[in-house]
Design a protein that fits this description.
The complex is a heterodimer of chains A (278) and B (388). Helices cover 85% and strands 0% of the residues of chain A. Chain B is of the alpha/beta class and 388 residues long. The chains are: A mainly alpha (278), B alpha/beta (388). At the A-B interface, helix 8 and helix 9 of A face helix 4 and helix 6 of B. The structure holds adenosine-5'-triphosphate and magnesium ion.
């Protein structure tokens, strides 16, 4: 093996990315600017509201969609975060997660539909999914920087890519698993493809899509934390600082905050999906 | 009028139908074709017609091609050879949009496992076909409500399918098909998943609806009793081919081969066969103008105890028996001696009905038409012979 020259795979990828940055960076920079402004604005407005109001709103959502137990947990958990002086970091992380999830859903649901109804699209999308899911999450951070610069937008970009696959897969699965009998019934009454999709397949796929979105939210949270390495801030930023300064207490404190946020987001988004199921 | 006309219909499942079609034309069997080419013969050279207002039942064992046949009629399955004509139009010539339009306007389909949409409530399930036609909401709900009324479930509009029993779900399935006011109903084993009692109810209900609506119905079943009860005509299928086609009576009376014979062995023939199959002509009757002596003489010649009295236009008046005649032998005619309590049956009554009448009346049972004209008689032994 020593005698065979190394394949310059890394150089090829670099060249490819360079080409993309040279030609498209102007576009991505514009997107970057707007997105960054939007996110800053959202964080600011969240910070403008008093924490107790946000806690009540979240508790109500949790109570309405999940159960009163989740509601109580939400109140206690968020009060703890407030007390630990992690409120601002939590709001930053929450904003990043919500924005990333929103964009991910916007891309993933149509992609999943496409993969379900077109064999060709399916053959292209599914291997890409495998690639996106097995690639170590950190790797996405590197190419994001030349396109979007250090900071939140790069974080969102890599988070969207990392968090999309479950929603794509489960949207596709949800549509495909609609029973052939129901599809036949729809056909027998003369439905067009669009009518079948909108009146039968998508409504029946909603619980499955919701399960995908739940996973996407969880992945987004974990990625947003990792993205602190490229300056995303938030709770991940706390952890990152703790690592650099070797402060285990500070690190675990932020870690626990992330777990609390994760549990709240998970329970709420899980139950929204299940509610539709019944 | 012919509503559906199926000509030489053949369906081959597989990637290379040409080869299988060649072999089929040479008379090779379904199994052999599968073994040599891997192609499955779904239907082979099917020919039949259904006229407007008729119920045609297709009956056969599992895998005989019934579902394939019904799906070729509305082109859910594309056939390999032959023609399906609906009101004279060859449906394989239709482009995609005209095909959808045809399905929307002409066909109502009912499925074995109901195939109701679990996410829609009952009224929206029933309205599905109309919604697909893009009918506006008010009108389609109005029509759906009357369809629900037809099947007696108008109080369940807001329920979800999962809240209904199997029998009710299938009524909804039927209402969904009827809501679009189709010419043709396609019913693929529509009652097979129901338990026997409910199934019987549904059969009666379908017949009652049919008596009012006169749809053209293609009904699939694997149950011969059901086929014979519902069908105006019955097709028996085996391995994708038609074994016999005919009215229920024809099939029971003259099975085409051993395969059919085997099927009908367990059928309760008394429900299928009618008075027609047991009726014999009347040789001797009396006229009301005859004198008692003449009637008595002819009864004696034929060893009869009781004789039917008919007018000159063949209208049945009743019977007289020899005892009465002997007592009143000085009457001028027998017109005042007639016993009018004689039971009668019509030619379309089943033997089962005749048996119940004959159990009480141990004589000749006169068969009459609507004008009460005598057509023939049935003796108990005639019934037994017909059922043998
Ligand atoms: N999509 C398909 N691909 C290949 N073969 C098929 C397909 N559909 C049906 N067949 C074959 O065609 C034949 C007829 O099937 P069909 O479903 O019409 O039978 P059936 O009479 O409706 O049976 P059942 O009473 O079980 O519903 C069978 O041999 C079956 O294996
Ligand atoms: Mg079938």
């Amino acid at each position: 093996m020593e005698n065979i020259p190394k394949l310059p795979l890394d150089h090829w990828i670099d060249d490819g990315l360079d080409f993309l940055t040279d030609n498209f960076a102007f576009l991505t920079k514009i997107i970057s600017r707007y997105l960054e402004d939007t996110i800053d604005y959202m964080v600011e407005s969240l910070m403008y509201l008093p924490p107790w109001l946000i806690i009540i709103i979240f508790a109500l959502i949790a109570w309405r969609f999940a159960s009163y137990k989740v509601g109580i947990f939400t109140v206690l958990g968020l009060c703890l975060l407030w007390n630990l002086r992690l409120w601002e970091s939590t709001m930053e992380t929450l904003t990043l997660v919500l924005v990333a999830t929103f964009i991910a859903i916007l891309i993933a649901v149509p992609t999943g539909i496409l993969a379900a109804i077109s064999k060709l699209a399916n053959r292209i999308i599914m291997p890409l999914m495998d690639l996106m899911q097995t690639m170590p999450a950190f790797v996405y951070l590197i190419p994001a920087i030349p396109f979007f610069g250090l900071g939140t937008v790069s974080a969102i970009f890599s988070t969207v890519i990392f968090a999309m696959p479950p929603t794509i897969r489960l949207t596709c699965l949800g549509i495909k698993q609609v029973s052939p009998e129901l599809m036949e019934a729809a056909d027998a009454f003369g439905s067009t493809k669009t009518q079948k999709l909108l009146k039968v397949q998508l409504p029946l796929a909603i619980p499955t899509i919701m399960a995908g979105i739940n996973q996407t939210i969880m992945l987004a949270l974990s990625m947003v934390v990792i993205a602190a390495m490229i300056g995303a801030g938030g709770l991940g930023g706390e952890v990152w600082t703790a690592i650099q300064r070797l402060k285990p207490g500070m690190g675990f404190q932020a870690g626990i905050a992330i777990v609390i946020l994760a549990i709240i987001l998970d329970r709420i988004s899980q139950k929204i999906g299940r509610g539709k199921n019944e | 009028m012919e509503k559906i006309n199926v000509v030489n219909l053949t369906k081959i499942f597989g990637s290379n139908p040409e080869k299988a079609l060649d072999l089929l034309a040479k008379g090779i069997s379904k199994d052999e074709i599968f073994n040599t080419t891997g192609q499955i013969v779904g239907l082979a050279n099917i020919n039949f017609t259904i006229s407007q207002g008729e119920i045609l039942v297709v009956m056969g064992l599992s895998g005989s091609g019934k579902s394939t046949l019904i799906r070729c009629i509305n082109r859910l399955i594309e056939h390999s050879q032959g023609q399906v004509l609906i009101d004279g139009t060859d449906i394989s010539t239709l482009d995609h949009n005209s095909l959808l339009e045809l399905r929307r306007q002409k066909f109502g389909m009912v499925f074995q496992h109901f195939a109701l949409f679990p996410h829609r409530n009952i009224i929206d399930n029933v309205a599905f076909g109309l919604e697909i036609q893009r009918m506006d909401k008010e009108l389609r709900y109005e029509k759906s409500r009357s369809a629900l009324k037809l099947v007696g479930l108008e109080d369940w509009e807001e329920a979800k399918p999962s809240q209904l029993s199997g029998g009710m779900q299938q009524r909804i399935g039927l209402a969904r098909a009827l809501a679009i006011e189709p010419d043709i109903l396609l019913m693929d084993e529509a009652f097979s998943a129901l338990d026997p009692l409910i199934r019987g109810d549904m059969q009666n209900e379908l017949l009652a609806l049919q008596a009012r609506m006169r749809k053209t119905i293609l009904f699939i079943t694997h149950d011969l009793d059901e086929a014979l009860k519902i069908g105006n005509r019955v097709i028996l299928m085996k391995d994708g081919q038609i074994v016999q086609i005919g009215a229920p009576e024809e099939i029971v009376l003259s099975p085409a081969n051993e395969y059919v014979q085997k099927f009908i062995e367990n059928v309760d023939k008394s429900k299928i066969l009618t008075a027609k199959s047991a009726m014999i002509p009347v040789n001797i009757t009396a006229s009301p103008d005859d004198s008692p002596q003449i009637v008595l003489a002819s009864m004696k010649d034929n060893c009869m105890d009781r004789i039917l009295v008919v007018k000159s236009d063949n209208t049945l008046l009743g019977t007289v028996n020899s005892k009465t005649l002997k007592i009143a032998c000085d009457e001028k005619t027998i017109v005042n001696l007639i016993d009018k309590t004689v039971p009668t049956a019509t030619i379309n009554d089943s033997l089962k009905i005749l048996i119940t009448i004959l159990a009480e009346w141990s004589g000749q049972l006169p068969i009459v038409n609507e004008q009460y004209q005598l057509l023939g008689i049935v003796n108990p032994n005639n019934v037994l012979l017909a059922l043998k």
